[in-house]
Design goal:
alpha/beta, Aspartate Aminotransferase, domain 1, 7-stranded mixed beta sheet, 40% helix, binds pyridoxal-5'-phosphate, pyridoxal phosphate binding, EC 5.4.3.8, transaminase activity, cytoplasm
């Protein structure tokens, strides 16, 4: 069933560390051999052995309308004929920035980069440059890319491998990273009192997706906003996952809380390597060449990347019903999973927000990293493989949110619910 994947994985390990170019793909946390993909269309991925999967990772978000969306593919093909890079400005970059500003609240100016990592790293540097302060607060289990400052209690990828401290990140760097539990406003308040006038930024996933899906408690984001206002701290919403996914205006719009800076990735690139950071004019003006906070990128605003993102975002902007449909599909899946899980009799928690959802095999509410990490991870591993065998591709880690795409049909969702029922019967 997986013979070609197995031999490809063996070959890959000869030339690529661990056989993969991003750690979570290696299936280490769920065991077994990673499945090598050959192609995908709509809601389905096909591996090198010809197996078909209903996809619940959507390339970790970008494929929100399904794989190989015809408009996106056509736009990329046409654009490629006019050269794939200039290293000089293009009109398309203006159109992209204008489109982002028309969709996202509080984005007066926006700078394109090539990944979510770059977006977060640059936003933090900017917040530091703007405030003249060094420290910042992040939340345990939130992931903001792999820049040094953020690799402290950094969620999914690291949790998957049980990595606590990361060799290569100096003490000097991590000393400026302050952490507290997600949803713990009091701890944030305390940190700001212990470090007066030293905290440049608070960065948060407004809906967390890197410890499974975890919702902000009522008042949490509003509380962060008011602490930042009081103490002159820059509030950064990391919307790399939530941006253009929860709503056209992301979590800011959906949850009605304003950030000072916002970072984007994933959906914004339509499957190409794209990130962006933007926000309030007074802060964004500190970026070079306007200001002295340096940030640059040879392939930033790359035409192929821009046209893919621009085409996808335009679809989302012009069809706001997509978000209602996605939410309905996710709610339908939630209800179905809930029924079969209840019938199976094992404790579980389903967290859902918009088109993000995750199943935690837990007997307690999952509201932060600690409560996520104390769920039954072993059971998730078995569930993952039982589902994979039945043609359902879930994230290969208990610490990742599932992402629905709008190509999924009710039938796909029913198949998924039925597969869960059968999987639970098999593994329990
Ligand atoms: C994926 C992710 C990142 C990093 O983005 P890359 O494009 O992988 O560098 C940052 N923040 C969040 C919330 C993410 O989910």
């Amino acid at each position: 069933m997986y013979n070609n994947s197995k031999s490809l994985f063996e070959r890959a390990q000869q030339s690529i560390p661990g056989g993969v170019n991003s750690p979570v793909r290696a299936f280490k946390s769920v065991g077994g051999t990673p499945v090598f993909m050959k192609k995908a269309k709509g809601a389905y991925m096909f591996d090198e052995d010809g197996n078909r999967y209903i996809d619940y990772i959507a390339s970790w978000g970008p494929m929100i309308l399904g794989h190989a969306h015809p408009a996106v593919v056509k736009a990329i093909q046409e654009k490629a004929a006019d050269s794939t890079s200039f290293g000089a400005p293009t009109e398309l970059e203006i159109e992209m920035a204008e489109l982002i500003r028309s969709m996202a609240p509080n984005v007066d100016l926006v700078r394109m980069v090539s990944s979510g990592t770059e977006a977060c790293m640059s936003a933090l540097r900017l917040a530091r440059g703007y405030t003249g302060r060094n420290k910042f607060i992040k939340f345990e289990g939130c992931y903001h890319g792999h820049a040094d400052s953020f690799l402290v209690k950094a969620g999914s990828g690291l949790a998957t491998f049980n990595i606590q401290t990361v060799p290569g990140v100096t003490g000097g760097v991590s000393n400026d990273t302050l952490t507290c539990a997600y949803n713990d406003l009091q701890a944030v308040e305390q940190l700001t009192e212990e470090h007066p006038d030293q905290i440049a930024a608070i960065i948060v996933e407004p809906v967390a997706g890197n410890m499974g899906c975890i919702l902000p408690a009522p008042g949490f984001l509003e509380g962060l906003r008011s602490i930042c206002d009081k103490k002159g701290i820059v509030l950064i919403f990391d919307e790399v996952m939530t941006g253009f996914r929860l709503a056209a205006g992301g979590a800011q719009q959906k949850l009605n809380v304003d950030a000072d800076l916002v970072t984007y990735g994933k959906v914004i690139g339509g499957g190409m390597p794209v990130g962006a950071f933007g926000g309030k004019r007074a802060i964004m003006e500190k970026i070079a060449p306007l200001g002295s906070v340096y940030q640059a990128g040879t392939l930033s605003g790359n035409p192929i990347a821009m046209i893919a993102g621009y085409t996808l975002l335009t679809e989302l902007k012009n069809n706001p019903g997509i978000y209602t449909e996605l939410e309905q599909k996710t709610a339908y899946l939630h209800t179905g999973l809930q029924q079969v899980l209840e019938a199976a009799g094992k404790p579980f928690v389903i967290n859902r927000f918009g088109s993000m959802i995750s199943v935690h095999f837990s007997d307690h509410a999952v509201t932060d990293f600690t409560t996520a990490a104390t769920a039954d991870i072993e059971l998730f591993k078995k569930y993952f493989h039982a589902m994979l065998k039945r043609g359902i591709y879930l994230p290969p880690s208990a610490f990742e949110s599932w992402f629905l795409n709008n190509a999924l049909t009710t039938e796909d969702l029913d198949v998924t619910i039925k597969a869960t029922k059968e999987s639970l019967e098999e593994i329990l």
